[in-house]
Amino acid sequence: MLSLHNVEKVYFTEENAVQAVTDINLTVSDGEFISFIGPSGCGKTTVLSMIAGLFPPTSGRIVMHDKEMTGYSKETGYMLQEDYLFPWLTIRKNIELGLIITGMHNKTTTMETMSLLKQLGLEDKADAFPSELSGGMRQRAALVRMLAPNPSLLLLDEPFSALDYQTKLKLEDLVYTTLKDQQKTAILVTHDLSEAIAMSDRIYLFSSNPGNIDNVFEVPETFRNKRPLEARNNPDFHPFFQRVWKELENLEVPNTNTS
What we know:
By secondary structure, the protein is of the alpha/beta class. Helices cover 36% and strands 24% of the residues. It has two domains: 2-75 and 153-252, P-loop containing nucleotide triphosphate hydrolases (Rossmann fold); 87-151, no CATH class. The strands form two sheets. Strands 6-7-8-3-9-10 form a six-stranded mixed sheet, sandwiched between helices. A four-stranded antiparallel sheet has the order 2-1-4-5, with helices on one face. The radius of gyration is 19 Å and the shape is globular.
C-alpha cells in the first residue's frame, strides 16, 4: 500500500543545513499496523509528517498505491496527541468537519459517522461541547472525526500519551479493534515500547543524528493478532519486550569507547 524509497529530509537555516532523516526505506501492506519507536529527536514524527503530505521530502520518493505522493491525500487520516476539537462546536459538528473539508458531507456519510460515534459509546455526547467531555472521550471523538471521511491509511502521532494509564489502555484496545474491524492500515509513532508491541504487526526502530531505520522487529505470531490488553498478558510478550528494549537502550546510551 505504501512505500518509502531513500527518503531524506534536510532543514535549511540561514547559517546551516540540518539533516533530520536520511535513507528511509520501508513498505507497509494493506491492513498492517506498524510502529515507529526510537530516541527523542530521531525523526519519527518528521517521517510521519512527510507521509501525511504536510511537507515534501528533500529527496527520495513516497508512493501510495503505486502513485507518488506530492502533497496531502484524502486517503490519509491523522490523529495527534492533542484532540484539537474546536471548543465552540459540538461534538457532532466537530466530527463532520472532515466530511466537509473533503467534500464528502451528505446525508449518508453523516449517518455513517453518527453510527460510528454510537459504536464508540459517544452517541449521547453528540450535542455536547468538548469542554464537557473527559480526555478519553475527546480522543474517541477525534478518532471518529479521523475515520469519518473513510481514509485508508491512518497516521497516529502519540495519540494516547496525554491520558491517564487506565484510560490509555482502554483506548488502545478500542482503537486497535476499530481499525482491525474496518481493515485500516495504520502507522503509530510512540515513545511507549509496550504500546508499540501490543498494537503492532511490525516495529521500526529509529536511530538519531540523523534519523535512520536501525532495525525492524516482527511482532511474534503468538500475540500479534490479539487485543493489546490480551497481548500484554501473553508469556512471550515480556521476553520480546526485553529484546527490543535492549536495542533501544543501546541507541540511547552514548558510546564512551574512544579506542
